[in-house]
Amino acid sequence: MPGGAIADLELSVKELLATDVLTADELVQAGRLLSILDAAFARHTRTLDLLGAAAFEGYGSSRSWLGATTRMALGSAGRHIRRGRYAFAHDASADAWMSGEITSDHLDAMEYVWRHAEDDAAFAEFAFDAVATDARG
Description:
This protein is mostly helical. It contains eight helices and no strands.
């Protein structure tokens, strides 16, 4: 079993699973923490992606490496790779996501608009402003 933060996280999750009922505030906080955990996972996945770690193990892409090593569906693996590439190329988005200020769903919406910006720049600017406004409340 891994040590340090991962071991502590695993113990905390097991404790949470053993809890019968959460208060509304605890449930909201758990959702916020889930997005923060997604951000941490994306940050570390992005590091491996930048290092080309997949190629060292004989995989053709970071997505295929992540899918195979975590037994994650390729679509999910691709979403995690895209999240990492987008968020950590855009500091404000990464900071908001890592703080729990925006959710993973908000980040996915911003990434989608950014990825399709070349198709229609005017729409992309409008859509990005709308998503960013919605994400920030």
